[in-house]
Amino acid sequence: MRFRQLVALTVWFLALSELRIELILLFQHFTWTSFLYAISTNKLAAIMLIIAPLYYARAGRPLKSSDP
To answer: Could you tell me the pTM of the whole model?
Structure first.
């Protein structure tokens, strides 16, 4: 596993741990209000849950010769 993939996984797990309580409440009783509240109070964690898999997929590709 490459270092960049490890960073992506670490960020994803940290975002999940930040949203742990909200996710438990959503699984117990889902409402759109609770979903929007969880996103609005933890914007960074919600964004990281979306971006980290995309970054992980990109990190698996070999670097181009033009990349530093």
So the answer is: 0.74
Q: At what angle do helices 20-28 and 32-41 cross, to 10 degrees?
A: 180
Using CB atoms within 10 A of its CB, is residue 45 exposed (0-12), middle (13-18) or buried (19+)?
Answer: buried
Query: What's the confidence (pLDDT) of residue 54?
Result: 87
Q: Please state, in angstroms and rounded to a whole number, the distance separating the CA atoms of residues 41 and 64.
A: 38
In angstroms, rounded to a whole number, what is the distance separating the alpha carbons of residues 47 and 53? Answer: 11
- Check residue 4 and give its pLDDT: 84
Does the pLDDT of residue 9 top 80, yes or no? Answer: yes
